[in-house]
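Thread title: Can someone regenerate the structure for this chain?

I was given the following input by a collaborator and told the matching C-alpha cells would be attached. They weren't. Posting the sequence so someone can regenerate them.
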Amino acid sequence: MKKLLCCSILLATTTMTGTAMADQLEVKRWNPKGLSQPQGYSQVVTIKGDRKEIRLGGKAGLDANNKIPESLADQVKLTFDNITLALKDAGAEPKDVVEIQVFIVDLDKVDPKPVYDAITNYFPAGHKPVSMVIGVSALAIPALKFEINVVAVVAESK
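Best answer:
Regenerated them for you:
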C-alpha cells in the first residue's frame, strides 16, 4: 500500500468558464516586484482556459524494481528522471509544471544542495513553478531522503 501511495499519478480534468476560449490556455509565471527574485522557481503562477491538471503524488528515488539509491544526490537524479517519465506519460513536460512541494528528510542535518540544484536546472527559463521546501523527520519508505509532489497543467485537447 505504501508503494502505491508513494508513486501514484493522479489525473484530473478541469474546465474553466468565463472569458476563456475553448482550447486556449494561458499560464503566466512571475516574481512580483517587492518579493525575492528566485532563479529556481516562480513566486506566482496563474492559469486561465480549458485545461487538464496533472498531479504527481510523492515522486521519489525508486527505480522500476523498487530499488532506492543510497545517496541523496542519486535519489534526486532518479526522482527527476521518474518525474520526466510520469509527465510524458500524462501528456506533459517540465515546462508544464506549475507547483512543486519538496520534502527533505532531516533538512537541518543534510546539505540540500543536490535538491536545490536539480530544481533550478530541471525547469526551463520562464517556466519555473511555485515551490515550497518542507523538512520532515521521515517519509513513508524509510530509505527515502527526498520526495516531491508535482502539479502540471496542459491545454485540454477536445
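Confidence is low (pLDDT under 50) at residues 1-22.
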